[in-house]
Amino acid sequence: MQFDDDVFDTIERLNAAPDDGEILGLLRQFSLSVGYEHFIVSGLPPRGVNVEPFVLAADWPAEWYERYFSRDYTQFDPVARHCFHTTTPFLWNEAPFEADDAYALQVMNEASDCRLSDGFCVPVHTEDGSQGCVSFGGTEKSLDPNKKLATHLVAMYAHGRLRALRRPYQFSPAELTPREAEVLRWLSHGKTTEDIGELLGISQNTVFFHIKSAGKKLGTLNRVHLVAEALRYNMIAL
Amino acid sequence: MEVHAIHCLNKHYYKNEVEQDFRNRHRIFVEEKRWENLRREDGRERDEFDGPDTTHLLLLENGAVIGGLRLTPLDRPNLLLKHFGNLVQRPLPDAIQSGADWTRFYVTERRFQKMGPSSPAGALYCAAMEYAVLQGWTYLTFVSKPAMVEILVSMGWKVTPLGMPRLIEGEMTLAGAIAVDEGALFQARMFNGQRDSLLRDRMVEDAAPQWASERLEVVH
Fold it and tell me: Nearest CA to CA, how far is A203 from chain B (Å)?
């Protein structure tokens, strides 16, 4: 029962956590208590969209983090893919993939090389239909049923609290103009200012103007942040 | 969208809406979610907790009920303590007289679109918290999937688990308590882009239409 009490205490503190740093610390402590050295809390955009701007918190081995995102491994990672098909938390070794899927095999093998041979993943489906997960990793092969329940619960709190801290403290953001939305859609497909100008038949200055104006409306810091926010609010379709 | 709070004093103003609510509930909880023990011959899902102690908050759009929930005071017979007592392993956050049980929460259509005043679920979150504040309750209990906790917490609400989740009929199920206060109401309104109260009461509007319309302009 000591374990359960500690879990409820962690949740109490997550509820009151004022910033990401505090949440990261609490998750680190919890993660170790169930036997995992590492974890990540992230949104999962559909295939083809870079996941890095969707990461909410991570304590991942630096080497793995770098490789995972620079090579865009979420596209092939069976654990990340499986989140789209289930609401039930699962052990990494339960994530299905085809035996001849060389990419999936490579991701799993390389993770092992970074001391992430096993893990436990909690999928999150938010109210606006977007997808996320909280994944714990290390070398622990299994988890007893009570620890699974506790991990499921703590993951929901951590994900929810991290999202709460990101809510803009204002009433719903201003609407984008159709033109701004169009520019952001191309931006989300990796087009440059020059490309977008050509595609829409407008000058680069005008493209800049639309990006700047949309950024102001959403209160964002740069283009990546802007696209992430626009996606989060479903202001642009994928 | 408007949310009407329907209770034993004003229910005769809402015969049609209450009927729609029972049919919606049967469609959603029995036919879609397959809670077979709620199935009824007449296609109207209702139980012993739809009695005079319970307030129904129904979300209306163009005359149609498009969502709803029930609130039953915890010191009256309620679903949580009668049927889900095994999920409650920790003390309630406050006196039993200060809480109510939130049940049968649904919206007829899930709209995946940006957060904002058009979200039916959002309108019900705001209305439930506002009604609870007005009643002087300090917490609301609920039984749901852990995913519900994520949504409520992401809205800035303080949710306390009343025990570890358990597997009930194949689904992970959890009892929790939501702290009720004006801060939570403000968070819900901000998050859902609802600046004003959505709560309406036909009995009040019928008794004092002029006063009611003035009130709606002044109070936010």
Answer: 30
